[in-house]
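## Example record

The block below lists the input lines for one assembly entry, exactly as stored, with component labels intact.
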Amino acid sequence: MRDVAVIGIGCTTFGEKWGTSFRDLFLEAGALALEDANLSGEGIDALYVGNMSAGRFVEQEHIGALIADYSGMASRHIPSTRVESACCSGGLAFRQAVIAVASGLEDVVVAAGVEKMTDVETSTSVDALAAAADREWEGFVGATFPGLYAMIANDYMHRYPLTREQLAQVAVKNHYNGARNPIAQFRSEITIDTVLRSSLVADPLRLFDCSPITDGAAAVILAPLERAREFTDAPVRVLATAQASDTIALHDRRDISTLDATVVAGRRALEMARLTPSEIDLVEVHDCFTIAEICAIEDLGFCRKGEGGRLTEEGETALGGRIPVNTSGGLKACGHPVGATGIKQVCEVVQQLRGDAGRRQVEGAEIGMTHNVGGTGASVAVHILGRA
Amino acid sequence: MTGIITYGAYIPRYRIRLEEIARVWGDNAQDIIGGLGVREKSLPDLDEDTATIAVEAARFALARRTVDPAEIGAVYVGSESHPYAVKPTACTVGEAIGATPVMTAADYEFACKAGTAGIQTCMGLVGAGMVRYGLAIGADVAQGAPSDALEYTAAAGGAAFLIGADDPIATIHRTVSFTTDTPDFWRREGQNYPRHGGRFTGDPGYFKHVQGAARLMFEQTGKSPKDYDYAVFHQPNAKFPQRVAEMLGFTPEQIRPGLVVPTLGNTYSGASMIGLAATLDIAKPGDRIFVTSFGSGAGSDSFDIEVTDAIESEAFKREGAPTVRQLLANPIYVDYAVYARHKGKIVMQ
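Predicted structure tokens for the full assembly:
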């Protein structure tokens, strides 16, 4: 297999982008990535795009073709593939693109993610997202994602020493980072009180424990490492790509407070990169809810099970801490356009490794990890990136 | 010059506290009251509707000034809760005040700004010399679906403005409108309650249009907020008008007399007009008033108004009808069950 490098990144601002259509979102992100890689569309061999539910959100399917068409590549008839794995769609699109380049089948490849979620009412988007769980055994009996993650939180808090304030600190820290990220949906700092006083969504999760509904797109361009310097002075090498699956329904899991797919994908990625967690300088984890970040940092091996709350409270996951988590603001503050999130995570890590992250820069960052989850943990993608 | 000859407002006496609504739906009352800046809202009596409210407001307007009703050549009632889908409320009002039969009449609907659209129509008819007086009314018994966010503010009330050119109590120097096709809030034919696009009602709806009309007015007149003594904005809650006033450069003092929503609720088509009425209740000759309404769908009408000496003349008796503050005083509070009965929410058969 060939070594693969990221040679360009592009991300729209995230938010309620009422004036920007689905296709305009991915065109904007794609154009930014091409510009970043000093490329034009003619240089692209293939497209992979992560998208969860354009059919429900904007009544558009056949996204691969749409993107090839509107980015002007349909006339060259390049392969264009939509990848769907719920909220993990972006992470898997990136992995498919990595595999394509590593295999030698394709050379310069775009991995993108896009989701336009605010064209429908909240009830419709909640139901569309519920399709990431088991519809027959969870959705039809009323389980929503806040409800499922609330069950994880309740189970976790029953078994491990996690306080409500420690949980809130996840959101406080991510808002602090988001306030320093120009693309973030929420660019305001909050306090623990903001979280504790926000309305209850699904006990114990409150509004500020939950990631928002977001419009946004992100794109990265991959090339063989040996060719990377044709396009950029600051290539970032893909050190590992890993993916794992688990039961789609939460109740079928061995342990609902541990996402086994995260444990397995994390371990596989670290093995592939021949690294240990202590060698990772920053990580973007899938904090769709605050409890998800606590589980993720434990399941990825940054601390032992049950210690995530304390690690967060002590500032070890904040900028300047031992392992900065979600410097982008995470899903909570940067926003969560579900299909785009996994690609945005890669964009953030690449920016950090390039030293381009401005006021949220992790000093001397050499190696970063991304962790993207579908559903309540039925699919997980973990990637490790390093300065080339 | 065309202006306001007289005016009157009407608010039903019944109120329900937002705490009571929150109690029924299990919501956090303090969060809601804090978020909206509204503590209670009005509701109609069992036999009150948009037509009776419009008639009351019109009668109060005529109680303040002697006008031959036969000289009222146009009646427009703006509302989104006309009692009939087909059969004009304006005819009922015209008949009740003795303006029929030599008059034109129509009902208007433009969400919360149909009443100010009526003022503009009357200004046109008066300005063209087609009628001596035109009566424009904004009134609603506003609908909000049970447990919907709108239920906390949807209120009942209205105001009537007689428009003419003979010795107005306030001159309307100019009016401008800012209108787009924006689906922020709607109710389809046959539906009982309106629907809304969540926060889409904020930035792309209210703030874009209110600011659009206001800035257009500043552009055309060369005036700025400091040239006005008072300002009135559409008030679906207390936060929106306060925020838009600040964005445009008005002070809290300028909007205070016309900000009636905290103890009234959102009277939809009546909201900005009752705010204007409350401001005229305390205005002095020479006072300059800036008014901007907003209706979802969406549009805003701005008015540049100057109070004349006539407001203190013999011909106009401000005390001839209750002020808005008097209408808001001494309410009768009801619980949710009585509220549900008054609003016709209980299915009887």
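Chain A touches chain B through six residues (CB under 8 Å). The radius of gyration of chain A is 19 Å.
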